User: Fold this.
Amino acid sequence: MEITLKIHNLLEMEKLASKIAKHLFPGFVLGMGGDLGSGKTTFTQYLAKHMGIKAVVNSPTFTILKIYQNHLPLYHMDVYRLEKIGYDYELDEFIYGDGVAVIEWYEYIKRMLPETMFSMDIKALSETDREITIKGGGVYAEIIKDLSH
Ligand SMILES: Nc1ncnc2c1ncn2[C@@H]1O[C@H](COP(=O)(O)OP(=O)(O)O)[C@@H](O)[C@H]1O
Ligand SMILES: [Mg+2]
Assistant:
């Protein structure tokens, strides 16, 4: 299943995050693609907020992984620095874990990721307009159907 959505501002980005937050489950794998500044971290911040996480969520670029304990934990990864290496097996327990794994620059570690996952590729069309392509199979396809209306 694949859909492309256009959003026009931060408020619509937050609405999308709140819709997706309702469908999260333990083991949910969410890959985020798109250039620097497209909104991957911003989306994750809204997602965390709607998961009930009170902590400040900021970019894990230098640490690769940040853990937010919660009834449904959030494992926020930014694997930009793994571009050349392509994997980091220490991340395995978080990708295949009991929380939600959000992975910025997921395409860099594609070989570590499950075949069935949820992905969002964001393209900046202007300062605030974004085109978001969302893909997913299996259980994720049902969620994507729900997002399209
Ligand atoms: N509709 C939008 N969705 C997401 N971010 C937006 C939007 N409009 C403006 N922005 C701004 O774009 C920037 C995105 O940065 P960030 O989330 O750090 O991107 P990335 O993690 O992809 O590098 C932020 O400053 C954010 O406020
Ligand atoms: Mg980021």
Summary: The pocket of magnesium ion (ligand 2) is lined by residues 40-41, 59, 78, 104 (CB under 6 Å). The CA atoms of residues 67 and 75 lie 5 Å apart. The longest helix spans residues 10-21.
